[in-house]
Design brief:
Blueprint (H helix, E strand, L loop, with lengths): L1 H51 L1
Amino acid sequence: MAATVKAPIWDARQDLQFEVKSLLLILFYYSAANLSRAISKEFSVCSCALRRL
């Protein structure tokens, strides 16, 4: 009886863990993409300023 009750909870926990991990991964990739975009924008602004000098 205890095993049958424990199994679905464990499965749900595993699913939740997987969802959280994938969400964190998506968030990480999204923030990394935004960061690289911001860096490239800053770099182009700096190079434009250097060309004017």
